[in-house]
Structure formats: structure tokens, C-alpha cells
Amino acid sequence: MVRSFLFLLVLSLFGFVSPVAAQETITVVESTATPDFPLSITFALTAESSGAEIVEIDLLYGATRSEVLSVVELAVEPATRVRVEHVLDTQVNYLPPGTEMTYRWLIRDATGSEFSSPPQTLFYHDQRFNWSERTERNVTVYWYEGGEPFGDELMQTSLRTLDVLQNEIGTQLSLPVRIYIYANNNDMRSALQSNEVEWVGGQAWPGLGVILGAIEPGDTAEVRRIVPHELSHQVLHQATDNPYGGLPVWFDEGLAVYNQETRDVGFDGLVQAAAEEGTLIPLEALSSSFPADPDQAYLSYAQSRDVVAYIIQAYGEEKVQELVAQFKAATPVEEALQLVLGVSVDELDAQWRATLPTPAAIPTPGRGPQNAPPDRFGSTSAGGVGLPAPDVAFGGIFAGMPSWGFLALAVTCLVTLFAVGGGLLLVLLRVIGVDKRV
Ligand SMILES: [Zn+2]
User: Fold this and answer.
1) Which of 101, 123, 145 delimits the end of a domain?
2) 295 with 151, same domain?
3) What is the mean pLDDT of the chain?
4) What's the CA-to-centroid distance between 354 and ligand 1, angstroms?
5) Which residue has better confidence, 212 or 384?
6) Which residue range(s) make up the domain with 151?
7) What is the pLDDT of residues 91-117, one digit of tens each?
8) What does the H/E/C string look like for the chain?
9) How far does the centroid of ligand 1 lie from the alpha carbon of residue 287, in Å?
């Protein structure tokens, strides 16, 4: 039924105009998309022609927010009435719950005339759980355990975070964000890609406006850690989204950690210790990605948070808004800092370091707490059907298992790197007129 090769052509979702001529003769009798989360989406079409036989049908689909479509050419037995079906394996081409999909059909007849069906949308929901939901100010939270009090807590934490971000970044969410809170890690993992590493405790896709978290009802500390961190990424992403990228990772992650209502235990000790030992990472090196080494990645989060806090304290919150405006305009980091703060990246780094102990000032060991925080964040690039890369949060079950946290952070960096690289690739492909993704 399906010739089953994907044209990895990606077309602008709404910009594509078909050479229409057979509009009057071809009719869509039925067009459906049936989700079976987390396994598949079945697309089916029945079409009729009152003129020449239908000889070709393409299915075009993709995440609405990503504005790109994958094309599947379906095998057709030439006839005036045809039915085709395509089962999209969403374990292979992963789609998170909450993804809004858009799809349509291109139908050609034997004379070469082409008919394009109007776009239809599909909400790929995780229907396996009996979700409660609340929506306010473009945030929808979904949960299925803990009753109304837990939903209240999730929503109130979200709204507090939006207020804080309004002051810091100067903007609200312009596009909806969906937050799915699973009651335990097993449930959440069953919604992730089947080959997802075991220690992943949460994920988010700023490009799709989707956050997944595993939080046990009553775990207030975890609500106040995960929700503000991930919402910060979403708001900042929407505020700075542009085709050229350029948002420094240290700024994005630093702001996300800074906004957590539950602080990560041990960060202060890490930064202090690294300062005393002279092993702080140059800020410049944290612009495009975090280091792969787990310890270094962990330190990267702590440093990024402190640098963002330093900017706010030393220069004022309004400077954060001005930086956001520059990143929205795709101004390179070095130039943006010069324009807004009047310093280079290295000078900012030096100013911040001057607030810390120096290797010379403090002889040796005197180190701060070396224990890792109970759990960690990371962002990783779990691929998907042309999906933007996700940010990953690592859940509370990893308490006392710092190496996992470190690993998570390492993955985060890689993800960010992929996200940036993917963005550049997309721009390049747009320039040459063709974009390919799976
Ligand atoms: Zn993050």
C-alpha cells in the first residue's frame, strides 16, 4: 500500500502553492488521521475524480509549529476512486505528546493536474491517562494524579514564573505551551522514545511548546525546580526565535537555573571550588555548547547561573531585556554584549570572576561542598520528525546518584549543540532552496 519512501523534501507548510487545475474534478471523500499514542498515527484518504484517473497521491505532514512538512509518496492503483493509508511509526519518527500536527494531500490525475487538499490538524495527545487540565495565560498543565490541589500548585507555579519572566525578559508567552506532568518516571518514560536512555527523567521541546516532567504529587520542591526552569526556556525561546539562532547557551541555561524556585544544592560550592583551583571554564567556551565531560558540564550550569545573576545585580534587569532584544535580532554574542553592557565576553567573564576567590588568594583545598545536587537538568537532542531539539530535565529519582546527573548535563550540551547546528543547517538549506529532514 505504501511505497514507503519518504521524500525528505521539506516544504513550507503554508507557503506551498500547487499548480492547480483539477480542483473541479477531484474530491476528497474522506481524510482522517487516527493517533495511537505512543505507537503511531494512521493517515487515510479516500478521493474521487470525475475526470481522469487518479494516479499519484502524496501525504504531507509535520509538526505545525515547526513549519516544515515531510512528504510520503503513496502507491496508487490508477482509478477514479482510490483509498490510501499511511501508518507513521511514531517510535521511529518520535513525536512527543501535545504535538499539534498539520497534514494534507496532493492528488494528481492522469493528465498531470494536481489537487491540494486544505490543511487539517491533529492533536497528538497521550490518551492512555485520564488527564485533568487547566489553562491560563497560554500555559496548559496536564496531570492525572494528585487531584485539584496538585493542579493548582502546577498552575500557580507556572503563573509565578511567567510574572518573574515578564520582568526579566519583558515578554509573555505568545504561543501556547503544554506541560504534561506524569506521576512517576516509568509513566513518563513510556511516553518518550523507546530507545531513550534510562536516566532521562524529563524532556521539553521549546520549538514545539511541549514540556514533559515526572513529578510525584506533593513533591513541591520538584515542581518549583522543573516548572520554572523549563518555562524559562520556553519564554526565552519564543522571545528570541529567529532563523539564524545565536542565543548563547550560557544565557539560556543560566537564566533557566536562575529562575528555579528550588535551587540546586552544591552549585555555590562548585563555583567557589573551581575559582579557588583556577579551573573555571572561560565564558566564551559556553556560548555554543556545554562541555561533554560530565563534571565540566555540571560546572557550566553553575557558572552560567552565576553569570546571569551577576549581570542582573551589576547591570540591572533591564539589561537582560536589552540582551534578549539583541538575540532576537540574531546579533552575535560578542556584539550584543558590547552594545548592551559595553564589555566583551572576556571582560564580562573577568568582571564576574573578580567577585570570586582567586587561586592566589586562597592556597589550596579549602573547598566547598562537593556533593552533587539531588537531581539535575540537561538538554538533549532526541531527534524526531523534523522536530526542534528538546531540553531535558532529569528527575528526582536520581537523588544521590550524581554521576547520572553529570551524564545528563553532558547530553544537554550535545543537544544544544545539535540544536544550533540544526538551525544553521536549516538556514543553509533554505538558502539553496531545499530542506531535508526526517
Ligand atoms: Zn535547561
Assistant:
1) 123
2) yes
3) 81
4) 26
5) 212
6) 132-432
7) 889 999 999 999 999 999 999 999 999
8) CCCCEEEEEEEECCCCCCCECCCCCEEEEEEEEEEECCCEEEEEEEEEECCCCEEEEEEEEEEHHHCEEEEEEECCCCECEEEEEEEEECCCCCCCCCEEEEEEEEEEECCCCEEECCCEEEEECCCCCCCEEEEECCEEEEECCCHHHHHHHHHHHHHHHHHHHHHHHCCCCCCCEEEEEECCHHHHHCCCCCCCCCCCCEEEECCCCEEEEECCCCCHHHHHHHHHHHHHHHHHHHHHCCCCCCCCHHHHHHHHHHHCCCCCCCHHHHHHHHHHHCCCCCHHHHCCCCCCCHHHHHHHHHHHHHHHHHHHHHHCHHHHHHHHHHHHCCCCHHHHHHHHHCCCHHHHHHHHHCCCCCCCCCCCCCCCCCCCCCCCEECCCCCCCCCCCCEEECCHHHCCCHHHHHHHHHHHHHHHHHHHHHHHHHHHHHHHCCCECC
9) 14
